[in-house]
Amino acid sequence: MSHGDHESGRIALDVMGGDFAPTSNLSGALRALGGDDGLDPGRMVLVGNEDAIRGGLEELGGDPGFVIRHASEVIDMHEKPGQALRAKPDSSIAVCVGSIKAGQAGALVSMGNTGAVVGASTLGLGTLSGVRRPGIAVTLELTGHPVTLLDMGANIAPKPAHLVHYGTMGSVLARDCLGVREPRVGLLNIGEETSKGTDLLREAHGLLTESRLDFVGNVEGGDIFKGVCDVVVTDGFTGNVVLKLLEDFAGFMLRLVMEELQGHGGAQWGPEALAKVRRNIDYSEYGGALLLGVAGIVVIGHGRSDENAVSNALRLAARALDAGVNDDIVRGLETASEPA
Amino acid sequence: MSHGDHESGRIALDVMGGDFAPTSNLSGALRALGGDDGLDPGRMVLVGNEDAIRGGLEELGGDPGFVIRHASEVIDMHEKPGQALRAKPDSSIAVCVGSIKAGQAGALVSMGNTGAVVGASTLGLGTLSGVRRPGIAVTLELTGHPVTLLDMGANIAPKPAHLVHYGTMGSVLARDCLGVREPRVGLLNIGEETSKGTDLLREAHGLLTESRLDFVGNVEGGDIFKGVCDVVVTDGFTGNVVLKLLEDFAGFMLRLVMEELQGHGGAQWGPEALAKVRRNIDYSEYGGALLLGVAGIVVIGHGRSDENAVSNALRLAARALDAGVNDDIVRGLETASEPA
């Protein structure tokens, strides 16, 4: 099913969000037009300062026919989300959310203030039927196939049932957008045994075992790199720690490696070889993080997203819309908790 | 203060523990005799099957004068700790703990079943005055200076006060054994702001701020690699996830890097260059994990510890004994919670 011809199939892009805004977002939108799965320009709603958008597009060779929607305010990357949303009702983030609410778009993409995007989306769009708490999902390609982890920080103190919802939402994402036919779900824990972990995890383990999900049981941190499952479920605190650790540890390791390569002529070819390694653990390759469970497709990218990351995020939003991820989540939640 | 001449200054080595036991442990004990901080053989109590120990030492060139203590049973790496300890009262682990209890040793080193070592030590030795829950500390050298993380899994559901105890215990370790004069303590969290994280962390943040520790506030996963503090405090669940993730992620990254190096003649020099990188994140370089807070020095190594790791663990145990780490922990806990 394609929503491409309807307003609800449009993707609102927060042009003002991110460290390299607005240029990176505008270039990203232009880049998303290309390739086999290129998007129609009329499918993208560019949200932000209209002058900046028109001027920026002019500099990049002209407007191919994007929908443009003015937003007079910008929420800074480091503003406190709740406060900023209250103080700036016409921020580009709020206008993106408003577009979905008004049925003028079905998805939004923002590289801006993550807390503000999560807050505005959750409050503005509400949760899908059956979902109690949204979760942030990221996908990494570590062992030649994608692994989706959630929650990466939307909900730091979930209840056992929320973790089951994450399992369902992650499975739908893997099936609909990542080509994984029968997603296997693992529960991030500190040992394989059923008895391991906190009360939260022991209860979640029981619920997941009883669910219709393909639950493979507890997995440990390192299993993420071993291909034992396609979806890894965890609480938002642990998930956020893990995600930040992976990002920074990768950078740290690669710096150490680069130093070692210097003596072997690596100054020339090292950066390129290591960039390839870095891409493996860069979740913007899969379009960024999806806030799953809200009534709309919400893609959140890194503040430091470049043109390529923005383009990937727009394509991910389009895939999620076209596949009807949210309808599938609602259906999945209706059946997932029925005993298998 | 040196305990070297007294039985309480001896170190009981679990010769039967670890994937390469008993050989790796015996070679490690021999290796610990060498170097500037070499240990006296009479300071080491080799615990395990006496025939295996004597035979093994013979093969390695003879017994330089170790104390040998027979233990008739061995707890396997994968046995359930509680069950195994009950079923095998004369295991090498139990005999090591018994040696400390009887005043015939002040420390134990084991590369065996971690759960069994933690359980036997905690129950057999009891906790130090002022300590409610022991914590596992590991030290990594990531940015040219050591960073100690705890708890790495002894206590998966700590209370706020326990995290303050970890801060004190980690600071004592850093000061006594790692040459850090004024250890800075960070609290692992998902953001710098005081308001971040779970109730546990917000309460711990308050207690740490009021304590006499040099508390630098919340740190994020990646800060471990940035030298912002010397001691990172976290609950045992998060700590265990982080530790396993770091270990496996490092291996994963280095495999990816090695593949990239193949095309640049890296087959020859790559392994050596990367081994150097690997050592940076290998906590056995600092002697393994210390179970802090029990009435005895307990060093737990990786199951896959080699001769070098065993030797490092023995030296760490000796340093901790000689520095009077446990006396300093008791003193530290008496004063740490007094307002600064």
Largest sheet of chain A: 11 strands, mixed
Looking at this structure, what is the CATH superfamily of the largest domain in chain A? Answer: Isopropylmalate Dehydrogenase
Number of strands of chain A: 11
Q: What is the name of the CATH class of the largest domain in chain A?
A: Alpha Beta
Largest interface: A-B, 48 and 48 residues
- What is the C-alpha radius of gyration of chain A, as a whole number of Å? 20 Å
Question: Could you characterize what this model shows?
Answer:
2 copies of one chain form a homodimer. By secondary structure, chain A is an alpha/beta fold. The first copy, chain A, folds into 2 domains: 1-131 and 293-323, Isopropylmalate Dehydrogenase; 132-283, Isopropylmalate Dehydrogenase (3-Layer(aba) Sandwich). Helices cover 44% and strands 15% of the residues of chain A. Chain A has 11 helices and 11 strands. Chain A has helices spanning 23-31, 50-59, 81-87, 92-101, 114-125, 160-177, 199-210, 236-262, 266-280, 307-323, 325-336, and strands spanning 11-14, 44-48, 67-70, 107-110, 135-141, 146-150, 184-188, 214-219, 231-233, 289-292, 297-300. Chain A has an 11-stranded mixed beta sheet with strand order 3-2-1-4-11-10-5-6-9-7-8, with helices on both faces. In chain A, helix 3 (81-87) crosses helix 5, helix 4 packs parallel to helix 5 (114-125) and helix 6 packs across helix 11 (325-336). The two termini of chain A are 29 Å apart. The mean pLDDT of chain A is 91. At the A-B interface, helix 8 and helix 9 of A face helix 8 and helix 9 of B.
